[in-house]
Design goal:
7 strands, globular, disordered N terminus
Length: about 210
């Protein structure tokens, strides 16, 4: 039994260190799939006008369903997820330059996604380099200038942070130790700084979902 647990732990650690293409999509689905609550996306859309959107880690389209409902005529939402079992327009590895070169051909204006946190170090710089405006759901601890992130964060600090109340991502009855925020790179908008989504606003957004 103990040997089996140890093998499982080693497999998870290898998964976190391996390139995304080498990961069994079913394993990724089990360990890294945390759908974004609708209220979080609505909180972003209250503050940021997004259009011609690419969702590179779309999962079951939790984000894109909300975004698509707000898009004006002629604007598109393009989806991608590595896992071929997920409903998406493409199934490319969002940690690679090749995938972003492909995405770029569709000329998205925005990237809006909640990437797997342990792959954000690869995905975020690619998104910022290839797409004009980016909104990423990340833990606030992503601001820590680790060896992997410091050069990017120094050269490309987010223009806005939309900080959210803590959320129980795992559905285990307890919240994460660090809250999440929308990290926004959008120099063209002229809006900068830190914005706060209060628990009261969160509850209002949730109540709106229930009456729709």
């Amino acid at each position: 039994h103990h040997r089996g647990v140890a093998r499982a732990v080693r497999a998870v650690l290898r998964m976190k260190q391996a390139p995304l293409l080498e990961v069994d999509p079913s394993a990724r689905r089990e360990f890294e799939y945390y759908p974004t609550p609708e209220w979080m996306t609505r909180a972003l859309l209250r503050r940021v006008h997004v259009f011609d959107v690419l969702e590179p880690c779309s999962g079951e389209n939790a984000i894109t369903k909300v975004v698509a409902a707000t898009q004006s005529y002629g604007s598109f939402v393009l989806t991608n997820d590595l896992d071929p079992a997920r409903p998406a327009d493409m199934h490319l590895d969002a940690t690679t330059e090749q995938a972003w070169t492909r995405f770029e051909k569709y000329r998205p204006h925005w990237v809006v996604t909640n990437p797997p946190f342990n792959l954000a170090d690869a995905i975020v710089p690619l998104a910022v380099r290839h797409v004009r405006s980016v909104a990423m759901m990340l833990r606030l601890s992503w601001l820590e200038p680790t060896a992997a992130r410091a050069p990017f964060l120094s050269a490309h600090p987010p223009s806005r942070l939309i900080v959210l109340p803590r959320h129980d991502w795992r559905g285990a009855g307890s919240t994460d130790s660090v809250t999440s925020a929308w990290f926004v790179w959008d120099e063209g908008s002229g809006r900068k700084g830190i914005e706060i989504v209060t628990k009261q606003e969160r509850d209002e957004l949730i109540a709106q979902e229930r009456t729709c």
